[in-house]
Amino acid sequence: MSSLVMPAPDAATLARRAEIVADLRMIVPGEGVVDAVNQMRAFESDGLTAYRQLPLVVVLPQTTSQVSRILKYCHERNIRVVPRGAGTSLSGGALPLEDGVLLVMSRFSRILGIDYPNRAVTAQPGVTNLGITHAVEAEGFYYAPDPSSQIACSIGGNVAENSGGVHCLKYGLTANNLLGIEMVLMNGEVVRLGGKHLDAEGYDLLGVMTGSEGLLGVVTEVTVRILQKPEIARALLIGFPTNEQGGQCVADIIGAGIIPGGMEMMDLPAIHAAEDFVQAGYPLDCEALLIVELDGPAVEVDHLIGKVEKIALNNGSTSCRISQNEEERLTFWAGRKAAFPAVGRISPDYYCMDGTIPRKELPRVLAGMRQLSEHYGLRVANVFHAGDGNLHPLILYDANVPGELDKAESFGADILRLCVKVGGVLTGEHGVGVEKRDLMPEMFTQADLDQQMRVKCAFDPGHLLNPGKMFPQLRRCAELGRMHIHRGQMPFPDIPRF
């Protein structure tokens, strides 16, 4: 692993490894426990492959009862646990710990129920995002959040990162489509939040769990909202001579009161990479390419297409193609969906960033990224959810060249600082993990971070669930003034309590 600072491994836990492995095999028999080094290599990193670490042991439970027993066992013995879904996280959120149990939820892979009258699907967390849509598409329904990794990423991981996708502008992120979860706390307690009803009473604990990155509990069941497919969907492929004109077109479309089903933008390097990879028919003579999808009743879609065309012309568009059938619409999106692997063909390595800005700041931030690119001497390809300002700069580098990874990370950190400076945030959907952990003070005050830590402590006072992630200092709840009571005995019992 690199020089990234993580919690120091507990020597006592490492010394008891054989005993821990044997005990876990009693809870998850058969092939549910992986402890051989060569087999654990498959789990040493997530999508942020620059950071790698072998876990103490890998456990793959199949039932909520097993998850509960594993967490209770680790809680009683002060053993750290890192939850993991499909391992597609791009922020290092599932990076293992040397002294930690890696709790892999991939065997939770069944659809548990489809309720069309309530427009809900209940699934285990290992079901893929796209798997939910496949389960209901025959009846004309689908699940709206669609991250580019939807063919592989798990719905449990989507909850952990509050994932979005190209259609999140109109239909929302995971948080806007999540109805309920079953989860297991670090002490082994199983709780349910929400359900098939629209809103739950009391505190919004479901909202707290969504995007909590495995720091508060382990999700074992997910209930999501499904939507009926719109009557028609058509996409426009619009080219612009500059990124600034494309960015202004995005702002003008939203300003006109039009909310597209999806609105994505790509710059020149990304356009060429995607076209070479997918051959979607993208124009290669433009600096910026905007994909705008409009859906709903046919008469409404036709009307809005005319309005968007006019807005694009007013912003200097040089080309505009409108999909004439479903196959062509999907082809337009195929290049955007494949942009990440496409960029991988033009550079030995790339670092995928994730920050979010106000839409009106898009031209300013794109200009700032160009300056940073020149400063660091590294190319950058841009693909992003233009409608909600969620940027995904892809910094191109060669890990075999000494110092280039460090330069790429510094470049990425400066992009995120720029996002915060213009009124944006550090992440839109990839999460904080270890990648943005030490940048949290750029956005939050110490009082803010302390309050977030108090939420963590309320769920996991021993700081055993996914430690070393999200918070910039490696701290424990005791440092916030929480009192630890061991076996009912308070420290300094003679001191008066008020």
Q: How are the elements arranged and paired?
A:
Elements: H1 11-15, H2 17-27, E1 33-34, H3 37-40, E2 57-59, H4 64-76, E3 80-84, E4 100-104, E5 111-115, E6 120-123, H5 129-136, E7 141-142, H6 155-161, H7 168-171, H8 174-177, E8 178-184, E9 190-194, H9 205-209, E10 218-225, E11 227-228, E12 232-240, H10 243-255, E13 262-267, H11 268-278, E14 288-296, H12 298-314, E15 319-322, H13 326-337, H14 339-343, E16 349-352, E17 355-356, H15 362-376, E18 380-385, E19 390-397, H16 404-421, H17 440-443, H18 446-459
Parallel strand pairs: 2-4, 3-4
Antiparallel strand pairs: 1-2, 5-6, 6-10, 7-11, 8-9, 8-10, 12-14, 12-15, 13-14, 13-18, 16-19, 17-19, 18-19
Helix pairs in contact: 10-12, 10-15, 15-16
